[in-house]
Each structure stands twice: as C-alpha cells, then as structure tokens.
C-alpha cells in the first residue's frame, strides 16, 4: 500500500511515469473520439450535399414541372408537389422559384412570393450550386438547380435543403460503443502502468526526479565543474578516481586510475601525503612552479572502510585572480566615484579640477587638464587658439610640469597635439624614447624625465563633435608603464568628465547671456529727485539670473514712484519677462494713475502675454510675477501703496519703531478677476520706507514670518541713513550666497518746505487772471526766479483761461519750487485737453501749443474729482537741479 501511495503521489520518478502513461492513454482516447466526431460531421455534411442536390435535380426534371412554371398559377400546381416531395425525401424544404429568385413554393406559405435567400447566379447559367449557410432553422446545406426547357433555356429554379442536425444519427449510435472501448483501454493501460511504475519504484528507491538530478549534478560538479582536483584512493593507496583538474595539476598519466600513487611519478612529499591517508587541511605542497593547497579526509570517518578523498587547489592562480579582481574592483569604484564626484557644480574650472583630483593617486601620479580659452568663457572651442592649464593635481608640487593658468601651444608631434588633431587617446609608454613629446619643450622635457615621470596617456575631452581640450595622465612612482587596459580606463574616465565639463560650458554661456540681458534691463543709475533719499541693493541668486527688478520713477508734481517686482524662476526667460514688465511700468507711470489702477493695467498685460505664449509649448507663462507700486507726494507727505502678491513694505519711523503697514494683498499678476486696493500712508519726514523682494525674507528652511521678524530686528538696529539701513539688512539676513534674487530699496522721506509752495484759488471770472499774474510775479520775485516770470505768467494765463472755458469750478492754482518750477491748474472737470495746431483763421486753439513750447514738460493728472494740468520749467541757475 505504501508503494502504491508513493506511485500515486506523483512526487517520485515512478509516480510521474505512471501519471505520464495515464495522460498519454487518455489523450489517445480523446483524440479517437474527437476524430470520430469530426469524421461523422464531415460525412453528415457530404450526405446533406448529395441528398439536397439529388432531391432538387429530381424535382426539376420531374414531369410537369416545366408546364407548371408556364401555368397562370404555378404555386397552386407546384406547392402540393413540393410538399409531397419534401416529406418523401426527408429534406427540410423544396422551393421552386422563377429566374428572378421569387419563390413559388415553400413549407411556410407566408414566405411564398418572396426572394430566395442564397446563391442562384450559377444556376441561371445552367450549373447547379450547393452551399452551406446559416439559415433561420440552423446550419443547413441547400442546392439550387436550373429547370431547362427542351431548348436548353432556364425557365425556373429548384432548391432543396436539409439541416445538418437532421442528417446525423449514426454518430450518436456509435458513441456508446466508442466510449465503452475507450474506458476498457484506459483500464488496461492503468493496470499496465501500475505494474511498470511499481518496478521502477523499487529500482529508484522512491527518489523523485529532483533528488536524482541533484545527486548527478553534485557528482558531476565535484568531478569536473569545480576548479579543484579530486582524488579518491582506497586503503592500500591505489588511485580509484581522479577528475580532470587533478590530472592537470599533478600531470597524471591517462591510465592513472587503478595504479598505486607510488607509481604515478609524483614528488616524494606528495606521494607520502596521499599514501598515508592522514587528515590534512590546506597543506601547501610545491609541485613544479605551482603551490597547491591539499585537503584530505577519510572516506568513512568511522573507520569501517579504509580509504581517503583528497582535494587539491591551485593557490597560484587564485592569488593572481584575486589581484586582478581587486584591480578591476578598484577601477569600477573609480568610475563610480567619477559619476558622483565630477560635475557637482556648473563651473568649468572646478569640474576640471574634480577630474584631476579623482585621478591622483588612484590612477596616475600627476594629472593635468588643458582647455581652450573660449571654453572657459562658455564659447565653442577654437582649434587654432591656445589652451590654458585649467587644473593640475599631483603627488608632489615640485614636478616640472606646466603650472596652472599658463597658456600652452602644443606642437603637432606631441601626444597632446595628436589627441587634439585626431580626437583619439594617445599612449606614450616611455617618455625618454618619445622624440615627438620632447619636441614640445626640450628643456622642460628633460627635467620631467629626470624627475622620474616616465609614462603618459593623453585623452581628448570630447563632447559630441567638439574637442574642448585634452587631459594628461603622468606616471612616476610605479615602474611599469601605462598599458592598453589603462588607456581604455582613461578614455572612459575622461568621457564621463567631458559631459559634465560641456554642461558647465553651456551653462556658463547661457548664464553670461542672461547676466548681460539682466544688467541691460535693470536701472544703472537712479533718476535725480528731491522727494526721497534712496539707497538700493541688488544681489543675484547663486543658482542663476532671476527676474527681480526695481525702479524709481519721478512723476509730476514733485512726486516719486517706487516699484519692486519679482518674476518667479531663473534664466533668460525670467530676465526677459522682467524687462517687459519694467518697460510696461515705465509706460503706465506716465499716465499718472493711482497704484491700484496701474497694477490692474499690468495684470491685464501679463494676462495677454500668457495668452500669446500659451500657443508655444517651449515658452513658459508669466504666472508667478508679483509687484509693489508706491507713489510718494513730498507736499502732503502721503504715500499711496498697492501690491500684487508681493510682500508688504516696512516702515521705519524717525524714532526707530518698525512696522509693516496693512496694505491689501492682491493676487499675483496674470490671474485677473480681482481689483487691486491701495493703502494711504503718512510718512513723517525722516521716516524710511523699505521695499524688497521675497528672496530677502523667504527660503526653503524658514517661513516668511521668520524672515519678516529678522527683517524687523535688522531695521530696528540700523543707522538712520538708507545706505546704513541696506548694509545692516543684508548683513543680518544673508550671511552667505542667496538661493533667490534679492532687490532692496530704502527710501527716506523728505518734505517740500512750505515756503516752496504757493497756492491761489481762482474765481471763474476772466478778470481774476490779471490778479493771478500779479501774485505769481510777486512769488517768483520772492523765490529769485524773475527770469521765469514771462513764461510762467503766459503758461498760467493759458491754463487758467482753458479751465474757465472748458472746465468746471472750483479752479485752483499751485506753484512748486523744487528741482523745477512746477505750475499746476486744478479744475473739477475730467475733460482732457488736446494739443492741436490752429490755422491762420482760427481765433483760438494756440494755448496748449504755447504751453508746450515754453515748458520743459507738461501733462494731465486725473484726480477722483477733476483733473490737474501741470507744466514744468527748468530753473535758470542750473537746469534740472536744485541745491
């Protein structure tokens, strides 16, 4: 029973053979049944074709069929005949139709008079056709034959058909017999397989295929696969078995097995050890030019059967392989370190130095990197130009190699010159025998050889089709020269470094372009004005050029606008976008709009830019731009501020108190949908307004609240002047290089003295113009500006007259004595005046033309209720300046 269970389990070889035999018999039985069924189906189909064709031809050739087709009512004559023929012949239908396929007969009367479903074209040509189709009553075979008159003309068609299931019958009758025979064969096969498997189970001791395979693999591995010699000896010292490795190591003859070890020609020490049968562990024996480690154990530790097993290992080759493996591992580690340690920055010189530092002393005693001058500047290499020694590393500093930063012209015969010309690495194993290398500099070459440097590898720094420079590896301490394997390693090492150096070169070029663009877009000097004492700082980010900007814009009425903005991101796109926004602010400021309205126009502009650039997948949108716009009036000491997603300004009062005014935070530019609100601040004279970008108060390690608090502490301890304030803020906020751009403006408020301001209300009476001119004349004399009397009187006369004619009451006149003499006329109307050229016959229209000719600048500024028309004149002593 145990043997039967083992056979049936299927885990042993006998069980698997038993199962295999049963499966084979079962497959044969199934195949026989399937073949019988398929044959029966083919026979059924053939029988259906023959029967349907015979019935159709018999009915077509039956007497009276042609006459019935020619009768007035063929259906009345042929329908009974067709049904009788269908029942006698055991077909499913007999259909008679005309040559158009219209049925005269059908088992279902409702289908008489309808088109026949099937192929009739061959029958119309006199040829019968048989086809197998999927009909409404199942899979069927139908035949269509022509009905021909004595002249051979087809006058009708007859079709007979039968379904395949009605043809069968013989197969179903044979299936029980076939299945019975199959079961009997299966029972006999099972009994025979059980007998065979039982015998096989006894012979294999119940082992499974895996155990038997594993036993064979172990035996074969011990004897042949391992790189150890194996010898088995009996108790008398006769060699019973030796594998191929043992024969090779001991140089055994072909007929060594069966001979005593003393007759094998082995050296005495080896013979004594093998014949003794004693235990040995890694006992080293010199055999010829090899050192063999021998291990020996008895075959039966209990001592019932004498004999020994000896294993032999060649330690000479193992030591050589160990040395080569260690060398290969070191080279792989160096290549891995090159991928990690070279290219940590986007600086060309630093990347070259990282390459030379990695190579010394792991690969060479000295390493030098020479790059074209244009590569260091980020340009394309110029093969005709000189190279500069960019990096040099060595085990000593006194080697007579070219020093760092020296320009070098390599001659064509030198290894470096050949590498640059051919783009391939050059191996110079012995420098003292290389005249081409010595031709570079005979005196220095002699010094190099005398110093002990004796071998050289030069590898060009290639990035695609560009050769950026050449790398030289020098050897002095190791007596062996560089070989071909080391040449391949040098090429791989330089190839990895070349990618990083080329990336640094490209970055240097793009960075230089971006810096140039940014510097051209930022203000180089601030405009002259008296309303604010200003100091500023701009610190670019360590990672590259950003999009921060600032501006100081003089406005009409001695007012000054301060602007600080930030475009998120770095690179050319950020710098170019910054320039576009800065230009837009310049243009919008000329409209003298309130800060909130100006930011609304700027927001609309950014939205249009995004729409225009959305069609270009390579151009990023401007989303992320922020801006703060402030307008300070030195007459009222009021400052209107609005911001679009920008950090709030800081206000340092004259007593040193620091606060962050509550300025409504609008959305960043480009989002649209929300208005921008302005806040009115009163700036005492001597107070400092601090505007900045988020790079000053935000970083990856601290939140903006922490940055604002540090800014508050720095401002509280800063000196009173804007310069001292800038210095204190940057020293406390950013001790090292910033991760983002920083723009900082510190503006100390000044007030226009009251004796420099003159105001007059003007009644809506033309006679009041004369009184106004007299008052203006007296004020100009008081200020010492008599030279401007004529022009000022004329300007104010024209502006006041226009206000009376076209504006609305009240009318107010104001003069400001600042860097310019500013004349302003206020009226309650919002109608804007327009400059035009009057014709010879016009009685008016020349007022603004005269104002434009007499004034340096003039314009219109709109107020919540009315407008101001202003005109500026240069002062006579020093135009454009006020002491």
From TrEMBL:
It is found in: Cell membrane. Residues 217-282 form the PAS domain. Residues 529-749 form the PPM-type phosphatase domain. InterPro entries: Bact_Sigma-Reg, GAF, GAF-like_dom_sf, HATPase_C_sf, HATPase_dom, PAS, PAS-like_dom_sf, PAS_4. Residues 337-511 form the GAF domain. The chain crosses the membrane at residues 13-38, 175-196. It is a multi-pass membrane protein. Its main location: membrane. Keywords: ATP-binding, Cell membrane, Hydrolase, Kinase, Membrane, Nucleotide-binding, Phosphoprotein, Transferase, Transmembrane, Transmembrane helix, Two-component regulatory system. This is Serine phosphatase RsbU (Regulator of sigma subunit)/PAS domain-containing protein/anti-sigma regulatory factor (Ser/Thr protein kinase). The lineage of its organism: Bacteria, Bacillati, Actinomycetota, Actinomycetes, Kitasatosporales.
